Amino acid sequence: MERRVVPVVRDCEARLVPTGDKVSIPAGAFVTLTQTLGGTYTIVHLGNMARIAGSDGDALGFEPEVLQFPESDATPTEEYVWFALRSVFDPEIPVNIADLGLIYAVALRDSTAHIKMTLTAPGCGMGPVLIAEVEERVKQAPGIDEVEIELVFEPPWSREMMSEEAQLELGLF
Fold first, then answer.
1. CA–CA separation, 156 vs 138, rounded Å?
2. Can you tell me the distance from the alpha carbon of 170 to that of 173, in angstroms, rounded to the nearest whole number?
3. pLDDT per residue over 44-85, tens digit each?
4. Is there a single domain that holds both residue 158 and residue 132?
5. Whole-angstrom distance between the N-terminal and C-terminal Cα of the chain?
6. What is the structure's pLDDT at 166?
7. To 5 degrees, how large is the angle CA 149–CA 150–CA 154?
8. CATH number for 28
9. Positive or negative, the Cα torsion across 113, 73, 53, 99?
10. What's 86's domain CATH number?
């Protein structure tokens, strides 16, 4: 995506990247939009990078993104859970968290998705934001009513855990 300046049409909350601290972006402000992947928005406002949740996308003039799953009889599948996980993007890196290697395991028990995930760094302030987004997106998968997330740091994340596609995207090959 090409960076562009957009006006904020109503006050909205954002989270500073990488600390996760809440900030308010006032109506009438102009922000630089740097990423619109996965239905969330990474912006720069007053020199600070921040992430605006998809539910506040209208403040930037966007409609909320709804995941479109293939036809389903509402039976939960790991395929649908992985599809939802691939719609969650790191706010700084244009790669989804599954291809980034942050998802260690997915298991289904009835209508509950159990997800074991990590962060690129243990002290990442965006951790709670990413966890909430994973839960919100995975609950959109057919047949999923509950999401249980276990945050783990063993083994520690490293860039070797990224998919080849992600490494190519980031020029690491």
1. 24
2. 8
3. 999 999 999 999 999 999 998 888 887 777 889 999 999 999
4. yes
5. 22
6. 87
7. 145
8. 2.30.30.40
9. positive
10. 3.30.300.130
Please report, to the nearest 10 degrees, the dihedral formed by the alpha carbons of residues 127, 131, 132, 135 taken in order.
170
Helix 78-85 crosses helix 127-138 at what angle (to 10 degrees)? 140
> What are residue 79's phi and psi, to 5 degrees?
-60, -45
Say if residue 10 is in the same domain as residue 43. Answer: yes
Going by C-beta distance under 8 Å and a sequence separation of 6 or more, which residues neighbour residue 108? Answer: 76, 77, 78, 81, 114
Q: Give the DSSP H or E segment for 84.
A: helix 78-85
Residue 122: count of CB within 10 angstroms of its CB: 11
> Do 111 and 153 fall within a single domain?
yes
| pLDDT at site 173 | 67
Q: HSE-up of 112 (CA within 13 Å, CB side)? A: 4
Name 31's bridge partners: 6
Single out the residue of 57, 40, 48 nearest to residue 22, CA to CA.
48
Q: Which residue has the tokens 């709670």?
A: 128
Average pLDDT on 119-135 reads: 92
- Overall number of domains in the chain: 2
Which residue in the block uniquely carries the two structure tokens 């998705």?
A: 113
The residue written with tokens 């990488």 in the block is 18
Task: Name the one residue in this structure whose structure tokens are 């599954």.
Answer: 98
